[in-house]
Amino acid sequence: PPANGSPLVIDAGTGSGCLAVVLARELPRAYVVATDISPAALRVARRNAVRHDVARRVRFVRTNFLAGIGAAADLIVSNPPYVPRGVAPGLSPEVRDFEPHVALFGGVDGLDHHRTLLAQAAGTLTPGGRLLVEFGAGQEEGLLAVVAARPEFRVLHVRNDLQGIPRTMVLAR
């Protein structure tokens, strides 16, 4: 658990742990919780935290995003699965046939996991805390509509990727 006064950061749906590891390295006072539903992903994330010498400040929890996390987080980051299920046939075989589908697909519109994450974050994020979430190309308007249905959040920024495509939303509670 975080020491008194240490910010709590949660990487919800950590996958390989790259966000959790970078946050632990860049925010040395923070305590990081990395969650994932996949035991295999958590094993990889734990190895990466050990490799980068931050394992003592990262707690790994098997859960669906924020389910059962009782602590109040100052920052939640997430790169949830956001590929719409219907585009699966058009994906490259390397992605479609070898990537775990649980890590790729986000329902019909690709935003099912974002809905879950926002519902859970409403009870986990501290007032004034931040939620940073990635989304797919062309999903900005859909995600804005999802956020609009959650009055406890407000959009602070939408950030573009290096190709100028909106990809990350910064929300405040």
List keywords for this structure.
single chain; 7 strands; globular
Would you summarize the structure shown here?
It is built from 5 helices and 7 strands; from the N terminus they run βαβαββααβαββ. With about 170 residues, the protein is α/β, with parallel strands linked by helices.
Cross-sheet strand order for the largest sheet = 3-2-1-4-5-7-6
How many beta-strand segments? 7
Taking all residues together, what is the mean pLDDT?
Answer: 89
Tell me what portion of residues adopts beta-strand conformation. Answer: 25-35%
**Gyration radius, in Å:** 16 Å
Q: Oligomeric status of the shown chains? A: single chain
Structural class: alpha/beta
| End-to-end CA span | 22 Å
Low-confidence stretches: none
Q: What share of residues is helical? A: 25-40%
Instruction: Tell me about the largest β-sheet.
Output: 7 strands, mixed
In one word, what is the shape?
A: globular
- Contiguous helical run count: 5
Name the helix and strand elements from N-terminus to C-terminus, one letter apiece: EHEHEEHHEHEE
